[in-house]
C-alpha cells in the first residue's frame, strides 16, 4: 500500500508511538491533587511546553481539546458570543474546512451574519474584497493557513493587517500548516496532532495572552475552565513528541517534500493543478484531467491510498465545496484527485503510484 | 515515601494491560477511518468492530456515539435533546449541573437518593446519574425510569462511574460512559442512545452527532477494557465493608451509610481534620485519595453533593473519598486504615 493521503491523516511517527507506550505506564488524573496526579500533570505540562515551542509561542495559553474540530468550535462560538453587540458578522472564506464553515453557518441561529468571502481560481482570497468586508462590524475572521484540499496558502499577513485595522480578532486554522511553516500571528491558532504524525483524539487551541473564551461544554475546571474533561497524559505526550519532531525535522521534511513535488510535476506534466502552485504547500498535489472519473480511478488503483478531497466529506457524494469555490464545474471536480505526501513517502513509491494512476486513467480513455 | 497506594480509582483507574495492548496494536492502523481507500476502510472496520464490542459488553442494542469523554457525551445529550426542558438531580456531576438553570435541580434525601416530588412533566429530560462519583450512592434508576416514562419524560443516565461495574440501566433513553473510569484510555467516552430521533444532529462524523476524526485506537482500548476480567470486583464489597467498619470504629463517619452504594467508592468524614489537611498527610504517607471529584479539586469549594444531602459546609469539609480498583489489595486496606486511625487520633 502506497499512502498518498497525508492531508486526511499522517502516519503515526514511531517516536510518537514509543512515547505513548511509555506514557501508558503512568496513570493518574492530571487534575488530582495527590502526587500521582501531579506526575500525570507533569506529563501534560511537558507536552504543552513542547507544542508551544514548536508553535514559537512564549506567552498566551495552549488549551488541549479532543481535536481540531472541537478547538475550532470553541474558538468560533466563544469569540462570537463574547463579541460586542455591534459586531455581528462572522467572516470566513468559501474554501475553509467544514469544521469552520458549518460552525460559522450555525451562528445564524444565534443572530450572527455569516460572511463567506469568495476565492479566485488560484484558491486565494481577493484582498480588495477582504478589505471591503472586514471592518468594525465583524466579530471574527476565521482563515486557514494551508488549505486541506488544494494546499494553497492565503496571504495571511495582509489579511491580518486588514483585520487589525478593524480591530477584528483572527482565528487561524493552522492544522495543515503546523510543523511546516511559521505559525501566523493570529489571536487564536488551532492545531491537530494527527496531521503532524501524532495521535488522533487530541488537538489544541492557542489563545493570545489576555484573551479569554467561554466554554463550549460544561463540566470541571480543566484547561482554565475553557475545556472541561479529563486530559489524557498519553495523548498529550504523543502530541508533544510529534510537535518537537516536526520542529526538529522541519527543514529536512520540507526539502524532502520539494523533491517529491518536483518529481510529481514531471510525472503528471499533462495534468492540471487545482489552485495556485506558487502559494502552496508542496506536499499537496490536487490534479485534474478532463473526462476523468476520479472516484472510479481510486477504486481502480487499490494499492494506492488517494482521495477526492476531504476525508470528512467523503462518502457524502457531494462535490467538493473547495473545488466549486475555485470555479471548477461538476465535470472538472469529478476529474480531480488529491495526492498528499510527506515525511515517509519515498520517491520510488511516488513513481510507482504515478504509473498506476496513469495506467488506470488511460483505461478510462480520457482525453489529455 | 515508602509506599504508594492508589485509592483514587474514581478519578481515573490505571489502564488495563489488555487495553494497552489493544491500543499499541491499533496504532499500526493509523489511517483516517473516514477515508474511502483500503487503509481507511480497515481503520473504519476496526472502529465499527470496537463499537459493536462495546455495545455488546454494555448490553446495549441502540446506537453508540463515540465522544472525547463523558463530559462531551453529557454535553451532547443535554445540548441536542429534543426535550422541552432538562431537569437534573442535585448531586449530578458539574458537567450536568452547569448546563441547567439552578431551579431545575431535583432534590435528594439525606442519603443522596433522588426524590421526584411531582409527577414528571411530559417532554422533560431527566438527567440522573447511576452512581455518584463522590459518595458511590446508587440511584434507583429502574423505578425512576418507570415513573419518568409513565409521565411522558425521558431519562438520561450518567453512568461514568458505574459502567463496567453494575448492569447499566437499560431502560434509560440515553447513557453517558467514560473509558478511563473502567480501565480504558482517557480521551474517549460514548453516548448510548435509544432513539436517534430524540437527538438533533449537528453534522460530521458519528452519524452527524460528533464531528472530528475518530480515534480508533482509543476505541479499541475502550472495548478491550470492557471485556477484561472483572473478578477483582467480587472483593470490593469486602474491602469497603472493612473500610466502613474500621473508620467507624476509629471515630469516623461513613457518608450515606444507609444507601445502596457502589462497592468501589467510600466517603468518610474525619471529624476535626479538614479534608485538605487529610489529603496532604495521606499523600505524604504514600496514599492517593481525594476530596470530592478530581475535576474540581484545587477549587476548595464545599462539595455540592454533600450540601444537597443536607450537610453543613464545616462537616463536608472534613470528608474524603476512597475509591478502589483492579490493583487494590487487602494490604492496602489495612495500611490505609492504620494511617486513618493514626491521623484521627492525632498520633501522626
What's a concise summary of this model?
The complex is a heterodimer of chains A (368) and B (348). By secondary structure, chain A is α/β, with parallel strands linked by helices.
List descriptors:
heterodimer, A: alpha/beta, 3-stranded antiparallel sheet, 12 helices, B: 348 residues, alpha/beta, 7-stranded mixed sheet, 35% helix, globular
List the helices and strands and how they pair.
The complex is a heterodimer of chains A (368) and B (348).
Chain A: E1 2-3, H1 14-25, H2 35-55, E2 61-65, H3 68-81, E3 89-93, H4 98-106, E4 113-117, H5 127-133, E5 138-144, H6 156-165, E6 170-173, E7 188-192, E8 203-207, H7 233-248, H8 250-267, E9 272-273, E10 284-288, H9 294-300, E11 304-305, H10 321-325, H11 330-334, E12 336-340, H12 347-363
Parallel strand pairs in A: 1-11, 3-4, 3-5, 5-6, 6-7
Antiparallel strand pairs in A: 2-8, 7-8, 9-10, 10-12
Helix pairs in contact in A: 1-7, 2-7, 3-4, 8-12
Chain B: E1 5-6, H1 17-26, H2 38-57, E2 64-67, H3 70-79, E3 85-89, H4 94-97, E4 105-106, E5 124-127, H5 141-150, E6 154-158, E7 174-178, E8 189-193, H6 205-208, H7 216-227, H8 233-249, E9 253-254, E10 265-269, H9 275-284, E11 287-288, H10 304-308, H11 313-316, E12 319-323, H12 330-344
Helix pairs in contact in B: 1-7, 2-7, 8-12
Amino acid at each position: 500500500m502506497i499512502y498518498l493521503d497525508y492531508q486526511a491523516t499522517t502516519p503515526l511517527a514511531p517516536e510518537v508511538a514509543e512515547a505513548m507506550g511509555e506514557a501508558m505506564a503512568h496513570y493518574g488524573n492530571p487534575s488530582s491533587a495527590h502526587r500521582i496526579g501531579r506526575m500525570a500533570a507533569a506529563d501534560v505540562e511537558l507536552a504543552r511546553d513542547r507544542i508551544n515551542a514548536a508553535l514559537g509561542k512564549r506567552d498566551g495559553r495552549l488549551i488541549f481539546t479532543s481535536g481540531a474540530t472541537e478547538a475550532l468550535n470553541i474558538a468560533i462560538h466563544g469569540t462570537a458570543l463574547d463579541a460586542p453587540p455591534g459586531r455581528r458578522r462572522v467572516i470566513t472564506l468559501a474554501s475553509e474546512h467544514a469544521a469552520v464553515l458549518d460552525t460559522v453557518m450555525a451562528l445564524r441561529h444565534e443572530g450572527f451574519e455569516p460572511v463567506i468571502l469568495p476565492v479566485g481560481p488560484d484558491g486565494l482570497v481577493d484582498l480588495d474584497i477582504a478589505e471591503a468586508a472586514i471592518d468594525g462590524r465583524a466579530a471574527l475572521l476565521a482563515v486557514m493557513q494551508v488549505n486541506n484540499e488544494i494546499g494553497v496558502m492565503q496571504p495571511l499577513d495582509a489579511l491580518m493587517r486588514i483585520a487589525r485595522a478593524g480591530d477584528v480578532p483572527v482565528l487561524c486554522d493552522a492544522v495543515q500548516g503546523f510543523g511546516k511553516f511559521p505559525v501566523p500571528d493570529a489571536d487564536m491558532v488551532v492545531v491537530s496532532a494527527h496531521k503532524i504524525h501524532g495521535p488522533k483524539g487530541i488537538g489544541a487551541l492557542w489563545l493570545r495572552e489576555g484573551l479569554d473564551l467561554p466554554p463550549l461544554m460544561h463540566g470541571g475546571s480543566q484547561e482554565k475552565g475553557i475545556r472541561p474533561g479529563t486530559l489524557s497524559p498519553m495523548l498529550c505526550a504523543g502530541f508533544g513528541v510529534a510537535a518537537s519532531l516536526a520542529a526538529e525535522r522541519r527543514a529536512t521534511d520540507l526539502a524532502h517534500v520539494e523533491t517529491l513535488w518536483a518529481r510529481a510535476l514531471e510525472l503528471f506534466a499533462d495534468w492540471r493543478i487545482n489552485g495556485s502552485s506558487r502559494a502552496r504547500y508542496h506536499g499537496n498535489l490536487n490534479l485534474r484531467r478532463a473526462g476523468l472519473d476520479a472516484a472510479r480511478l481510486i477504486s481502480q488503483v487499490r494499492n494506492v491510498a488517494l482521495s477526492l478531497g476531504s476525508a470528512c466529506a467523503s462518502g457524502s457524494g457531494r462535490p467538493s465545496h473547495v473545488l466549486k469555490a475555485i470555479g471548477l464545474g461538476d465535470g472538472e471536480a469529478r476529474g480531480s484527485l488529491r495526492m498528499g505526501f510527506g515525511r515517509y513517502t519515498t520517491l520510488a513509491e511516488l513513481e510507482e503510484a504515478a504509473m498506476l494512476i496513469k495506467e488506470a486513467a488511460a483505461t478510462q480513455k480520457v482525453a489529455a | 515515601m515508602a509506599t504508594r497506594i492508589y485509592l483514587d480509582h474514581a478519578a481515573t483507574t490505571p489502564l488495563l494491560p489488555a487495553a494497552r495492548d489493544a491500543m499499541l496494536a491499533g496504532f499500526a492502523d493509523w489511517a483516517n477511518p473516514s477515508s474511502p481507500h483500503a487503509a481507511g476502510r480497515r481503520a473504519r472496520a476496526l472502529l465499527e468492530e470496537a463499537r459493536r464490542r462495546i455495545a455488546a459488553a454494555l448490553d446495549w442494542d441502540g446506537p453508540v456515539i463515540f465522544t472525547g469523554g463523558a463530559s462531551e457525551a453529557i454535553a451532547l445529550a443535554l445540548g441536542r435533546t429534543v426535550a422541552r426542558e432538562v431537569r437534573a438531580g442535585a448531586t449530578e456531576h458539574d458537567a450536568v449541573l452547569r448546563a441547567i438553570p439552578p431551579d431545575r435541580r431535583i432534590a435528594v434525601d439525606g442519603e443522596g437518593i433522588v426524590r421526584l416530588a411531582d409527577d414528571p412533566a411530559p417532554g422533560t429530560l431527566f438527567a440522573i446519574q447511576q452512581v455518584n462519583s463522590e459518595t458511590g450512592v446508587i440511584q434507583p434508576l429502574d423505578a425512576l425510569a418507570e415513573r419518568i416514562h409513565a409521565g411522558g419524560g425521558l431519562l438520561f443516565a450518567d453512568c461514568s462511574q458505574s459502567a463496567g461495574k453494575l448492569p447499566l440501566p437499560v431502560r434509560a433513553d440515553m447513557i453517558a460512559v467514560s473509558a478511563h473510569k473502567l480501565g480504558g484510555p482517557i480521551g474517549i467516552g460514548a453516548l448510548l442512545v435509544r432513539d436517534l430521533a430524540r437527538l438533533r444532529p449537528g453534522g460530521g462524523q458519528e452519524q452527524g452527532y460528533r464531528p472530528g476524526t475518530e480515534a480508533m485506537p482509543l476505541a479499541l482500548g475502550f472495548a478491550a477494557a470492557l471485556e477484561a476480567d472483572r473478578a477483582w470486583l467480587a472483593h470490593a464489597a469486602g474491602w469497603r465493608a472493612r473500610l466502613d467498619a474500621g473508620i467507624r470504629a476509629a471515630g469516623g463517619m461513613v457518608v450515606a451509610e444507609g444507601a445502596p452504594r457502589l462497592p468501589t467508592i467510600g466517603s468518610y468524614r474525619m471529624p476535626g481534620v479538614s479534608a485538605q489537611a487529610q489529603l496532604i498527610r495521606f499523600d505524604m504517607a504514600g496514599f492517593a485519595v481525594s476530596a470530592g471529584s478530581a475535576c474540581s479539586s484545587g477549587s476548595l469549594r464545599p462539595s455540592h453533593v454533600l450540601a444537597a444531602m443536607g450537610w453543613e459546609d464545616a462537616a463536608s469539609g472534613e470528608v474524603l473519598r476512597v475509591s478502589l480498583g483492579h490493583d487494590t489489595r487487602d494490604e492496602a486496606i489495612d495500611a490505609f486504615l492504620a494511617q486513618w486511625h493514626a491521623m484521627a487520633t492525632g498520633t501522626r
